[in-house]
């Protein structure tokens, strides 16, 4: 707002042929508040009531800059790794005595490169073109967890020591908003494990401390047959019935070994079962039941 000045005191050279001191007045009283340009009429009147007038343009000029008020804000990046702001986001209540025309800021777009605190300048402009500025702190945060492409379960064959190493799953990372990222796993790659299934936890962590985890399995299988030294061929004497008996070949087996099971025992069951079959065959033969004798023959 502006006030109308006292224009009367600015009038000079007023004169009249009959009245020594004509009266000078103005149409809008001095001190009247105005918010736009106005015309004020100056009237000079003599003692006989005769008058003369002129108009004076009173212009309102705003030379007062606006008040710029900033506020600090904290924002989170979106999935694309960016965030946008406007001047209103950092305006803390800027004002002007005549009216604001516009607000603008020095930076509107923020990305992973702007993580942390950033100084933004707010410029306030009023209707008269006067400007003022203030500074706001814009803090950018990354709160988005990485996305893991979890490895598929792995099956490995045990080595000669009945062991295998856990693979390296460092390539499990699929997507991260702001890199770099560190991928770890428990147990670590190269850890020696034995036959069975081991659960591996894979974790991806970015520089902002965001993390994501998943689990997969590593199964170690024993695919190697046991080893042993086979007994030599055996000759047995026939009895009175021209029959021979199968000896205990199991006790003749040596050097049997298996990394997982130590001393394997499956051949023992087979040998005993085979011996039982031979005994039954001998009984059938002696009792005329036509049993077959496969392993021993009497010659001569």
Describe the structure concisely for a colleague:
It contains two helices and 21 strands. It has helices at residues 87-90, 266-286, and strands at 2-3, 23-26, 33-34, 38-45, 51-58, 73-76, 82-84, 100-105, 109-111, 116-126, 131-141, 147-148, 154-157, 163-165, 173-175, 181-186, 192-194, 196-206, 211-221, 227-229, 254-257. The protein is rod-shaped, with a radius of gyration of 53 Å.
Keywords for this entry:
300 residues, mainly beta, Immunoglobulin-like, four-stranded mixed beta sheet, 2 helices, disordered C terminus
Low-confidence runs: 265-300
Number of domains: 4
General shape = rod-shaped
Largest sheet, if any?
Answer: 4 strands, mixed
Would you mind describing this structure in some detail?
By secondary structure, the protein is mostly beta strands. It has four domains: 57 residues, no CATH class; 69 residues, Immunoglobulin-like (Sandwich), CATH 2.60.40; 75 residues, Immunoglobulin-like (Sandwich); 60 residues, no CATH class. The chain is 8% helix and 37% strand. The chain is built from two helices and 21 strands. The radius of gyration is 53 Å and the shape is rod-shaped.
Per-chain topology:
Elements: E1 2-3, E2 23-26, E3 33-34, E4 38-45, E5 51-58, E6 73-76, E7 82-84, H1 87-90, E8 100-105, E9 109-111, E10 116-126, E11 131-141, E12 147-148, E13 154-157, E14 163-165, E15 173-175, E16 181-186, E17 192-194, E18 196-206, E19 211-221, E20 227-229, E21 254-257, H2 266-286
């Amino acid at each position: 707002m502006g006030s109308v000045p006292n224009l009367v005191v600015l009038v000079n050279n007023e004169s009249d042929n009959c009245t020594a001191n004509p009266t000078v007045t103005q149409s809008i009283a001095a001190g009247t508040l105005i918010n736009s340009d106005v015309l004020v009429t100056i009237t000079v009147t003599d003692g006989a009531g005769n008058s003369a007038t002129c108009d004076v343009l009173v212009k309102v000029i705003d030379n007062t800059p606006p008040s710029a008020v900033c506020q600090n804000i904290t924002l989170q990046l979106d999935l694309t790794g960016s965030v946008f702001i406007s001047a209103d986001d950092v305006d803390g209540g800027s004002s002007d005595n005549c009216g604001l025309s516009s607000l603008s800021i020095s930076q509107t777009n923020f990305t992973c490169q702007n993580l942390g605190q950033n100084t933004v300048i707010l410029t306030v402009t009023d209707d008269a073109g006067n400007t003022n500025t203030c500074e706001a702190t814009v803090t950018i945060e990354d709160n988005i967890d990485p996305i893991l492409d979890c490895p598929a379960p792995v099956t490995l064959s045990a080595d000669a020591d009945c062991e295998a190493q856990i693979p390296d799953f460092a390539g499990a990372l699929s997507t991260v908003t702001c890199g770099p990222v560190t991928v770890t796993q428990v147990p670590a790659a190269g850890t020696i494990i034995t036959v069975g299934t081991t659960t591996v936890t894979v974790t991806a962590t970015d520089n902002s401390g965001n993390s994501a985890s998943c689990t997969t399995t590593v199964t170690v299988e024993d695919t190697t047959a046991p080893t042993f030294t086979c007994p030599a061929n055996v000759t047995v004497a026939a009895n009175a019935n021209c029959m021979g008996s199968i000896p205990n070949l199991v006790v003749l087996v040596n050097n049997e070994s298996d990394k997982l099971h130590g001393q394997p025992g499956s051949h023992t069951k087979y040998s005993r079962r085979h011996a039982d079959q031979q005994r039954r065959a001998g009984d059938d033969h002696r009792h005329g039941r036509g049993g077959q004798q496969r392993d021993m023959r009497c010659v001569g």
